[in-house]
Amino acid sequence: MIKLLNQLIQVRISALDIDTSVDFYVNQVGMRVVRRDDSGVYLRSWGDYYESSVVLVDGPEPALHTMTWRTESDEALEEAARRVAAAGIVGEWRPRAAGFGRSFVFTGPWGHTVQLVWDVDRFHGEEGDASIYPDRPERRSSHGVAPRQLDHVTVAASDVKAFTAWHSEVLGFRTMAHTTLEQGGFSVFSVLTTNEKSHDLGVVLDGSSKAGRANHFAYWVDTREDLLRAADILMENGIPMEYGPSIHGIGEQNFLYFRDPSGFRIEVNTGGYRNYVPDWQPYEWHPAQGSNNFYRNGQMPHSMTESFPPADGPSATEEGVLPGTEQQLLNPYAEHGLG
Ligand SMILES: [Fe+2]
To answer: 30: domain range?
Structure first.
């Protein structure tokens, strides 16, 4: 099978107050607005190769509207669309718009809207924005968090293993790791990738009755020092750290999490392994092995179990909640010593 997907290139998220959110993403995160029209406000980080990576749209509650993936070629786009249709999903072709050529858009089995595109406008900074280095889309920014580029998105689904299998079989993601509870044996988290990192797509267990929810999206910074500087700047500006800075065991990536003005969770991410193993077999991690927290010495805040839009909360898997595992389902990392 040809390789289908190349990279996550854009997330479209809702903003309760668009001007407040734009101000936050510009002045705290350090992105800049490159397009503003009836379809949303388009922002980019300095290292994004394409025009924009985050789009803000008006909405009554925090939510992920669309995640956009670039394919490996036009042939791969056709093949991906064919495979989605063969899986029983009805999608639609959309014409060129906002820096993208024609794209194929569908809603996956767990309610997430996915856009696939090959033809994408490259970004080249002009005048004062241009880099002295020819491979950079624009000069390095030091404003706010100053992320280099979009890194990954983590959604929520009612059956983590089934979500992972579908995306591996239909769209060709490599499945890299699962987190499975010792008690009950069901999976609460999995990571999938189109590249050498542990993930550009994550999925957390959603026990609510609402489909299409998301947990966070993440930016990339070049170094751990950049990540610690980001935490320092955000704290000084009154934006609390929801969790971190620390390191995930799975993927060995440095992380920190905070919220945007609408309440949507943002991660800043760096480091991690490089994995090129084509027949990699995902390991079933347990929280006690440090799947979430490498150092196994921190309690994950309960707020981290919130996904968006808000719903009736974690309640059950498709198999139901096993007696005695309710608390683990809500937050398997809530006890000291569970990573
Ligand atoms: Fe993440």
So the answer is: 5-330
